[in-house]
Amino acid sequence: MKELVEKIARALVDDPDSVIVEEAQGSHTCVMKLKVSKDDVGKIIGKKGTNANAIRTILDAAGGKENRRYVLEILE
What we know:
Elements: H1 2-12, E1 20-25, E2 29-35, H2 41-45, H3 50-66, E3 69-75
Parallel strand pairs: 2-3
Antiparallel strand pairs: 1-2
């Protein structure tokens, strides 16, 4: 799942080398911490949060198959 979030984020930003995804796993929850450069935070979030919501929807769909909950945190 980490690789998927990283690939999506790299496609959206101007500086793909600055994209870092960290994964913190619990028993039923996994927190995906997405770090991007300060200039690219707006591109990841998108207008009215559309990009961030789309990534979260993908994580929700994948989590349903695995019986896990994925949480996306966007950091700069």
